[in-house]
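Quarterly update from the structural biology core.
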Amino acid sequence: MASMRAVGIAAMMLLLPSAQGFGPTSSPHIYFNRTISQLDSKFHFYVTFGGNATCKSRDQYGDNFCDFPGGLSTINWDLSSPIDLTGDDWYNIQITVDEMSHLNLLNCPICGEHCQINFLGFKYNITGGKCPIKAGHVQGSGNLPIPSISYFPQTYGAANLQVVDKPTGTVMIDMKVELTIGHK
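Predicted structure, tokenized:
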């Protein structure tokens, strides 16, 4: 009877951490996917990833359904707007963590005015820079160092970004980015 109990405890110790996303046999990966439900035809948005990142698909907006293991990945972007952005253009960011915590993080003018964010009891002031932000094209690249952590709980997060012309209510950009940290 004691040996059956020991086997049961050993099995629980091996299975329970993995079932909770703490699997000791692999480093967590970050899984990325994005949905762009609206992008005004005047704007151009294209983002790709390289290095350790592997992506399952590529469309008119760039890479999607990507896996970032620990190590160094890269990001490349190509963005443009043929119109000036003014203080009448606002952005709104909402964040969800593990589908329980919903935060309306930002609702601010893109440029000009100060904006205050209340996040986890702290107040932050953001200044959007000088208006207008002139129409233009921007390309660039950068490194995305992804730490290798052997124990990390399975976590889900999503951010919704909208850019809206306040006077008309026109949504120029509506995008959702989802990240899941988990084990393969």
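Residues 115 and 149 are 35 Å apart (CA to CA).
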